[in-house]
Amino acid sequence: MNIYLIGMPGSGKTTLGKRLAKTLGFSFTDLDIVLAEQEKMPVTEIFAQKGESYFRQAESECLKRTLQLQKSVIATGGGTPCFFDNMAWMNEHGITIFLDVSTDELVKRLTSSEDATQKRPLFANKTVDELRNSIDTMQVNRVPHYEKSQFRFLPHETKPSFVASQLKEKLPDLF
């Protein structure tokens, strides 16, 4: 059984994922890194050279291959749950956790360094106001998909030890 972390770009999927995996004794997989390795180019280049449609199809195929993993925490891309049948598939084949972070906090995190937005193709080269508007629009479209997850944690609840204890309490057979 795998754990899929979902949420907006900047919500902490990779950061929490690494720590949660260590806490649980699971492995960690970042779906964007797997996809970049498969395509032999960064996610931003896949978007630029091959387009979002190609990216989403390849991302979905990478997601389905995570079925081969055992006891892994998987950080998905922010859009992963919103395309094809990915959200239903993750719920069927693992545990899904929505990291629910406010627009203000996302803007703060994404503007903390230049690299934070540049490695996210849908946010690259945006002013703070454009970034805020993009996040707001994106949340309107994505949150309904995210809300189909089995668990939802707010930022103050995302300490790996807390998430692990909640999972162990509610899903003892997993551990």
From TrEMBL:
Top EC group: transferase
UniProt entry keywords in alphabetical sequence: Amino-acid biosynthesis, Aromatic amino acid biosynthesis, ATP-binding, Cytoplasm, Kinase, Magnesium, Metal-binding, Nucleotide-binding, Transferase
GO biological process: amino acid biosynthetic process; aromatic amino acid family biosynthetic process; chorismate biosynthetic process
Cofactor binding notes: Binds 1 Mg(2+) ion per subunit.
Annotated Gene Ontology cellular component terms: cytosol
Annotated catalysed reactions: shikimate + ATP = 3-phosphoshikimate + ADP + H(+)
Superkingdom of source: Bacteria
InterPro entries listed in its UniProt record: P-loop_NTPase, Shikimate/glucono_kinase, Shikimate_kinase/TSH1
Record's keyword annotation contains Magnesium: yes
Subcellular location: Cytoplasm
Binding residues for substrate: 32, 56, 78, 142
A Pfam family reported for this protein in Swiss-Prot or TrEMBL: SKI
PANTHER family: SHIKIMATE KINASE, SHIKIMATE KINASE 1, CHLOROPLASTIC
HAMAP family tied to this protein: Shikimate_kinase
Subunit structure and binding partners: Monomer.
Family listed: Belongs to the shikimate kinase family.
Protein name: Shikimate kinase
Source organism of the structure: Xanthocytophaga flava
Organismal lineage: Bacteria, Pseudomonadati, Bacteroidota, Cytophagia, Cytophagales
